[in-house]
Design brief:
single chain; 385 residues; 3 domains; five-stranded antiparallel beta sheet; 5 strands; globular
Length: 385
Amino acid sequence: MDLALDLFKNLDLLKMLAPSGLELFGVEDPVDQFSEYLEACSHRTLDDDEKSELLAELLESLSELKIDSNGGDPDARDKIQAIYDLLDDAIEGHLLQVPDLMMMGKILSDAGWVIPDSLKQATAKALEASPPEMEGDTEADLVSSLLGVADQAGQNPFDVYEYLNSVLACFPPEAAAMLLSVLIVANNAVVNQAVAGFLLHRDAAIAQSGAGALAASASKNPVQSSLIERLVRMRPWLPQDRQAHIDTAIKAMRLNALPPEKTELPKIIKCYASVCDGSGTRSLFVTRRIGGHYQIAAVMMKPAGVADAMVISELPKSEMDAIVREMKSSLPVMEMDLAGISRLLAFAIADNFTQETPRRSNCSRWWRALVSARCIPIMLRQRKS
């Protein structure tokens, strides 16, 4: 599993570089790129660095292909189907080993593609096919690799969640749920916070497993009060049938909660909202200061609710100002007060709730960065009435 860990680290470094405008690779047909990657997996012709470069190029191409497909491009849709066909052939031919299958799931997930059931089943079967005497070692290696990837995320639970979510996407729900339960056993505070994000997962079985794992862990290990606070904040965003599971977890965790930690409150600098584009998409941006560092919190909202959210941390003021200038030059925005931003976000979360579309795990972090969660239930009731 060390190969998978190394590839994950190198790939995410290249992903950070690619959007900056640096042309890392030449333009190539995505179907040909995918075929080249499959051949490299089959014949083991590339070293780790070369494979990471190929994966970064492939991720960028697949992401662009997905965007073109969403825009109605028939050629892009044909190429997507051709790539799925190539993947099915490679799986049927047993050309991909476990690290390759996991990496393929991560690539497709990060590019916004649907993970085919054939890939999920192949990954699970490949792990089950390990010799009996190696079965425990295989599971331990996988968990160790996932924990290692978590360490590379800088102990940021929201980044850890994104890692785990994209990696677990290549497993069937039952296997992904089992791995979450195993990860919790490690009693890693950052991983526990990341597992909490899976309570918002679109698959109910995975969400229920995450809640059960947190409750079980609380019976053995003290729980951070911030984790309980986060679950309380998330609860109103969930349908009623899921609230019962999170209620059980919260009750168990409160029985073994650590005292609340004192944290420095941020100072809000400015709030911005973009105008809606033709598809009804708009964004919110908030700049704030914590100690000697600055942050930018951003959320993208669509008619179905919150679609994505992120917080860029540990910025020097000059870099924050440069990002804000770039933002203002790229789309029409208006300044708003915090109350207005809070109201827009609450309405978007209510749209998630009423339309039963999944909330992003990072939305919890966004809300915590800005406002009290006490107004969420009020907004939900207003939106439903």
